[in-house]
Design goal:
Chain A: Pfam families: SBP_bac_1. Chain A: This is ABC-type glycerol-3-phosphate transport system, substrate-binding protein. The complex is a heterodimer of chains A (435) and B (295). Helices cover 45% and strands 12% of the residues of chain A. Chain A is built from 17 helices and 11 strands. Chain A has helices at residues 5-31, 51-67, 80-93, 104-112, 133-137, 161-166, 182-195, 216-221, 239-253, 269-274, 288-294, 328-338, 341-351, 374-381, 386-392, 397-412, 418-433, and strands at residues 42-47, 72-77, 99-103, 140-141, 144-145, 148-153, 156-160, 201-204, 278-283, 299-302, 315-321. In chain A, helix 16 runs antiparallel to helix 17 (418-433). With 295 residues, chain B is mainly α. Helix content of chain B is 75%, strand content 1%. Chain B has helices at 2-40, 57-63, 66-98, 104-116, 119-130, 136-143, 155-183, 187-195, 200-211, 213-228, 232-237, 249-259, 263-287, and strands spanning 43-44, 52-53. In chain B, a hairpin with a 7-residue loop joins strand 1 and strand 2. Classes of the chains: A alpha/beta (435), B mainly alpha (295). Chains A and B meet through helix 1, helix 3 and helix 16 of A and helix 5, helix 7, helix 10, helix 11 and helix 12 of B.
Chain lengths: 435, 295
């Protein structure tokens, strides 16, 4: 017997189809983005975003075009999963968009590789003063700004009021000064563990995937640092580093978090909270609209805990122009326009994100959804220090992230002790930065 | 004489004409990128600008990289288990569905359906089934009094999840090929064997199985190569964890190339993968005695 040609073709086609489909998606994703050498006065802008974020970008673009006669901005919205494979391919091929959106922890990789436009000669005087010192520090490379901080986000704690009430925890901090200390958080977790039904856990931490930078909040709360101000020398092999690893490992040892909460897990912390598996979850403000529409229980928000000091990760995204843009002036003026007070306020309120301008951190911001949560997140963002944000802007951050992920996973599930973990982290960070 | 010569030349030209589009596409989308990847594998580069030529240094690093060896072992183990299990299951189903089973048309369709589902969607279904906090499977195990399994946080069960999901995905395809093979075996051979006194097992072992040689050859090569290239299911279902237990060569190459941005090293991993697939195909080509067996 011989395999017939028809059967072989059918079989080969069937096998090849799943391989081709994602390929189509990739090509399709990059299709509409155009190049930086379009008609004069036209900027291409590639971003991903939630519905609220994209609506915010569209209305900002419309306002920019009205304010600048003859200028057009072409928005190319892509899924987050394709965003940076697209951008990388376009940069490598020499036809990147003029402007794109980038998380602060990825910013350094592009800025350090000479792919972004140094904005110093193109920005208006005094632009720096419009941003918080922390936000400004997050877009610096070699002492120059290579982007403008569009918004930030940082993690506070969302709690399931029903589960907390059931465990007798009714006194939840309502001001940043009253935030739980690490010890108090531990006591709350123990009471929850005792009071919750089996299969339910006190909390989950949102450090999965690239979110491992959120573990750094604990390091900062221990008054530690992972990089020196040269952005190369590892500083994590310290008492603060050991204390942060020890504390976070105790979450697993004490059964305060489900085992699936580890850094390499494919289950996101928020999902375990929505399903009622955990009572509390570390979460950015961006999750508030989802929680409002999805959670079928009563919930509230409180501050992240305080260790030696308060601290948090500087999440969120910058807007950057590419080195290859043919219109640096126009690109810089668009970035300034989008980060101006009115535009930033509208964007942040609609999308539940935190502003990077001090003139919006004075109580004038109010989220469209669950406005009463605004002050908690704004207060939490006030705990983020400039020196903490500056480390995350390191050009080597993309190589540091896997080191943190792997080493924390080994500490959380593999019982690797804190001293070994921070020693390995320091070695891995040194390899990544070439220190 | 001239007549005789001209005709083959014309035929050869026509033949080249027919294969030209395929060769051009293959060259453009397979061979050119392959050569490109090989060149990248000789560089140290983050993907931006010109890389630094480092010769075989990336390959040297592979030799001493424990993560690479572990990923290679995981990939090999995955390949052996998945290929053997999905082919055995595929053959068993094909034999069943080649007989006078009631509603066999329906069963055939149901078994082939997973093939139509993308790998990512398949893996997402796997996440719903194997989620150890809220998954269907652990709830079922609990309901019948069996201990729940930590499918996501323990290495061996996590490895089992990617194997099970891949088998579910691939068995239908193996069945399809075997079914085509079975239908090409004439009833006269079985009849002759029966007259010679062979029982059911003997007929299967000595008539059916050898005549399925070409199908088996095709399936072994395809299954091994696809298992070596497994990515989407692992990426979505386990992300390579817990503690690297399900990290296979392609997820390691992906992380190295697109997360760490060490693209030269990632390309070197890709080259090793290519080499293994080619070596396997050649060895299998030479070793298989029933590859071209026909009635």
């Amino acid at each position: 017997m011989q395999l017939s040609r028809r059967a072989f073709l059918a079989a080969t086609g069937a096998v090849a189809a799943p391989l081709l489909l994602p390929g189509c998606g990739f090509v399709g994703g990059s299709g509409g983005s155009g190049s930086g050498t379009g008609a004069e006065g036209t900027l291409t802008f590639t971003t991903w975003g939630t519905d609220a974020e994209l609506a915010g970008f569209r209305s900002a673009i419309e306002a920019f075009q009205q304010a600048n006669d003859g200028a057009t901005v072409e928005l190319n919205a892509v899924p987050y999963e394709q965003m940076f494979t697209n951008i990388d391919a376009q940069l490598q091929a020499g036809n990147p968009p003029d402007i794109f959106r980038v998380p602060y922890y990825t910013f350094g990789a592009y800025a350090g590789a000479g792919q972004l436009l140094d904005l110093s000669p193109h920005l208006s005087d005094g632009v720096q003063d419009q941003f918080t010192d922390t936000a400004w520090a997050a877009v610096q490379n070699d002492g120059s700004p290579f982007g403008l901080p569009h918004h930030t986000d940082t993690s506070a704690i969302l709690y399931n009021r029903t589960l907390l009430d059931a465990a007798g925890i009714t006194d939840v901090p309502t001001s940043v000064e009253d935030a739980w200390t690490w010890d108090e958080l531990g006591q709350v977790a123990d009471r929850l563990k005792a009071g919750l039904p089996s299969g339910t856990y006190p909390f989950a931490y949102n450090w999965q995937g690239n979110g491992v930078t959120r573990w750094l909040s604990l390091l900062f709360q221990a008054d530690g640092a992972f990089l020196d101000s040269d952005q190369r020398t590892p500083l994590i092999d310290s008492d603060a580093g050991r204390s942060a690893v020890e504390f976070s490992s105790s979450f697993f040892r004490n059964g305060w978090v489900p085992d699936t909460d580890t850094t390499t897990s494919s289950t996101y912390a928020a999902d375990t909270w929505f399903s009622g598996t955990v009572a509390m979850v570390w979460s950015g403000a961006f999750q508030v609209p989802d929680a409002d529409s999805t959670a079928d229980f009563e919930w509230g928000v409180t501050y992240a805990p305080v260790g030696v000091r308060g601290g948090g990760d500087f999440g969120g995204n910058a807007l950057v122009a590419t080195q290859a843009t043919g219109q640096p002036e126009l690109a810089a003026s668009f970035l300034e326009f989008v980060t101006a007070r009115e535009q930033m306020q509208a964007f942040c309120q609609a999308a539940s994100l935190l502003p990077t301008r001090p003139d919006l951190l004075d109580g004038s911001l109010s989220f469209d959804v669950r406005p009463e949560t605004t002050d908690v997140f704004v207060g939490q963002a006030g705990q983020v220090q400039p020196q903490d944000a500056a480390q995350v802007a390191s050009p080597s951050m993309s190589a540091i992230i896997p080191v943190l992920k792997t080493q924390l996973d080994a500490a959380f599930l593999g019982s690797q002790d804190a001293a070994t973990t921070v020693t390995n982290m320091a070695q891995g960070i040194a390899d990544a930065t070439g220190a | 004489m001239r007549e005789v010569r001209r005709r083959p030349r014309g035929e050869a030209l026509a033949a080249y004409g027919f294969i030209a589009p395929n060769v051009a596409l293959l060259g453009l989308f397979v061979l050119v990128p392959l050569v490109g990847a090989f060149v990248v594998s000789l560089q140290r580069t983050d993907g931006f600008g010109d890389g630094e030529f480092v010769g075989l240094a990336n390959y040297g690093r592979l030799v001493t990289d424990p993560v690479f060896w572990r990923a290679l072992a995981t990939t090999a183990g995955f390949t052996v288990v998945v290929t053997a299990a999905s082919m055995a299951l595929g053959l068993a189903m094909a034999v069943l569905l080649n007989s006078v089973l009631p509603a066999r048309g329906l069963f055939r369709s149901v078994l082939i359906l997973p093939m139509a589902v993308s790998g990512v969607a398949t893996a997402l279904i796997g996440v719903l089934v194997f989620d150890q906090n809220n998954g269907i499977l652990d709830k079922l195990l609990g309901a019948v009094g069996l201990p729940e399994v930590n499918w996501q946080s323990e290495p061996v069960p996590a490895f089992a999840t990617i194997v099970l999901v891949t088998i579910w995905w691939r068995t239908g395809f193996n069945m399809l090929i075997y079914l085509a093979g079975l239908q090409g075996i004439g009833p006269d051979l079985h009849e002759a064997a029966r007259l010679d006194g062979a029982n059911g097992w003997q007929r299967f072992r000595n008539v059916t199985l050898p005549l399925l040689g070409p199908s088996s050859y095709f399936l072994v090569v395809l299954n091994v190569i696809y298992s070596f290239q497994v990515f989407d299911i692992v990426f979505v279902l386990t992300g390579g964890g817990p503690q690297g237990a399900t990290n296979v060569l392609v997820t390691y190459a992906y992380d190295t190339g697109f997360v760490t941005r060490d693209q030269g090293y990632a390309a070197a991993i890709g080259m090793v993968l290519l080499l293994l697939a080619v070596v396997f195909a050649v060895v299998q080509w030479r070793a298989s005695r029933t590859r071209d067996l026909v009635e």
